[in-house]
Amino acid sequence: MYLDQEDERILAGKQGETKAKMLELLVALGKVFGAERLVPIRSAQVSGASYKTIGEYGLQWLSSLDAKAVVPAVLNPIGMPRERWEEMGVDPDFARKQQAVVAAYERLGIGLECTCTPYYLHETSYGDHLAWSESSAVSYANSVIGARTNREGGPGALAAALIGKTPCYGLHHAENRKPQVIVRVQADTRDWSIAHYGALGYHTGKLVGNRIPFFSGLNPDSDRLKALGAAMAATGAVALYHVEGITPEALKVPFELSGLEIITVESEEIEKLFKVLPVDAVAVGCPHCSPDELATIARLLNGRIVTKPLYVFVAQGVINTNLKTVDSIEKSGARVFADTCMVVSPVMEKYSAIMVNSGKALAYVPDMCGAMARIGTIEECIAVATG
Ligand code: F3S
Predict the structure, then answer these.
(1) CA of 260 to the centre of ligand 1 (A)
(2) Does domain 281-385 have CATH number 2.30.30.100?
C-alpha cells in the first residue's frame, strides 16, 4: 500500500504514539480490503459514542488516546442529551459515564454534535471522500449527496479523523458503486409519507441484503430518501442505493442495468407493516429530524397537548437554527432532545411499546429497547400522542 513521506513520519512515531497506532490501524484495514493507497477525507463521523454501546472498556480505550482530529468530525448520537439529561430521566450514574465518554472525544478534537445527520451541519458535496460510520448517515452521504464513504467502524472513523485520510477501497471507487439489483415499486407512491418510505426500506433491506439497489417507480424528496436509506441499512446492509431520475449518480452516471435481478414490491407489502398496536410512548426523529420535519411536527401539534410521552430527536445544530419551532413543539408537552435517540438512550427501555414513524426504529426498537414497535405516519404519531 502506497504511503507518502508524511504517512511514513507518522508511522515512525514522529507525531506521537496515538497517531502512529491510528495510521497502523488504517493501513491494516486497507490491506484487508485491498486498498492501494489512502485518500484524504473532507469529514468524519464517529460511532461508538453511547456509553450504552461501548461500556467501560471502550471508555478506557478512548481515554488512553492522545491526538487531535485534523478534519471536521462529529459524534454519533449518545445515550442522553448533553444539556437536558436530567429532564429526560437519565440515571445519574449513567450520565457521569456518558459525560466521561464525551470528554474523551472532546480531548481528541471530535466535535460534540452527536448526530446521525451530520450533513445538516457540515457541508458535504458530490464526490467528497468521507469516513462516516453511522449506517443511515453513510447511506445518505453515498446515495442522496453522491459523496463516497464506506461504512466505517467506530475505531476506523476515529483513526481517519485523527489522520485525515481513509483507505481507498469499496465505495470510494466508481466501479463499486454500480447497481446490483433492480427494485420495481408497483404502487401509487405519489402520496407516500416519510413513514411509507421507511417501511419500504424496512421491507426491501431484507430482500436485497448488501447489494446496491436501483429503484424505479418512486418520487421521493430528501426526507423520504433519508427514511428509505436508514431502514434499508438496518434490515439489510445497504450503504448505497440509486433512485431512477432522482439520486445524483442515477442522473449523472449511465448505469448498465440489463441482466440484473428484478425484485417487485407491491403496495400491500408496505401497507401491512402499518399495524395498530397500543403504545405507551411515541418517538420521532430517526434519523434526526430535518428542519422541514420539525416544522411539520410543530404544525400538527399546534393547539394540542400530549397525553403520552412524545419524544422528538434532532441535532443540536438544527435546534439552534429553529428555536421558535422547537418552542412551539414543546408547548404541547412534547420534548425535543438533541444528541440522543430512541435506540441509543437507555431511558426508552422503560416503555413496553413505542410508536415511531421510521423503518429503522421499527427494526431496532425491539432489540435495543426491549419494547414492541409500531410504525405510523407523522400525522398518526401525533394523533396517538395527543389522543
Ligand atoms: Fe439516528 Fe438513532 Fe435512528 S442514531 S438513524 S436516530 S437509531
Answers:
(1) 31
(2) no
